[in-house]
Amino acid sequence: MIFRIPLLALGLAACASDLHALPTAEAEQDSRDGHITVTGYATVEVESDVFALTGDLFQHAESRDMAIAAIAEQNQRVRDELPLLTGLKQIELSNTELNIATLRPAGCDIMSYGVDEVPTECEPIAYTAAISFSVTGSPATEAGNVMSYLSEIGVERTRLSEFTVANPEEAKAKAETMAVRDALRKARALAEGVDARIGEIVELTDGTETAYRDRKGSELFNTQNLRRARPVVDRSASTAIAVTPKPQVFSARTVLRVELIDK
To answer: Do the bridges between strand 35-46 and strand 27-30 make them parallel or antiparallel, or are there none, so unpaired?
Structure first.
């Protein structure tokens, strides 16, 4: 994006203490047309406030109906009890996969038979049903307790996928503001070095780069759309698991071209 705006129009508010400008970048002066071009850099470190995990439910039964009924009951228990965990502010669960399989004796290849031609020795001996699900929740520090509780209520397998932030756009905007401030500081310093001052901004190019994965926070966790009904009694994991979420780092790069005016 390219902006052409007066310097005084940049009402840049002071940024939070967690914003750190990177070391000075090179600046170049074009004496032929009275402009200078500088590059500003900045980084923002934001505490993770959202966790994402996945889990698998598994049931084994003698009949298809029993396997399906058991997996449906277990899935509903997860849906009912997970939002009741103490400490959770937001939670969202979605099912990602459902599998129902028929188990037959070893060596039975029913694909070589017709529907009504399966021999007696290849009749089903059991049925399995499995459901996979994903969970996003907040705060991020509750991820370990959520996994512990899911294991207690029979979830076969859980995996912590990632930590992230609910509003990455806000962090990106802070990094961009700091990058512009960094570029202006460099431009003024360069102008002072040649006994001049900077004038209007001729060109401001936003080249934001970020270490955060290219997934918007709203796709992972939308705090406006999720609601958690407060139960009469919260539930807690019998064994707490403490986790330390890794902060998310966002970086920004801005190229600034301004007029150079004699004092």
So the answer is: antiparallel
41 and 106 share a domain? no
Specify the pTM: 0.68
How many domains, the chain?
A: 2
Residue 55, domain CATH: 3.30.70.2970
Q: Does residue 168 have a cis bond before it (omega within 30 degrees)?
A: no
Q: Give the structural domain span for 182.
A: 2-48+166-262
Q: Are 144 and 241 in contact (CB under 8 A)?
A: yes
pLDDT, one tens digit per residue, over 130-181 is 999 999 999 999 999 999 999 999 898 999 999 999 999 999 999 999 999 9
230 contact partners, CB below 8 Å, separation of at least 6: none
Task: State the burial class of residue 256 (Cβ atoms within 10 Å of its Cβ: 0-12, 13-18, 19+).
Answer: buried
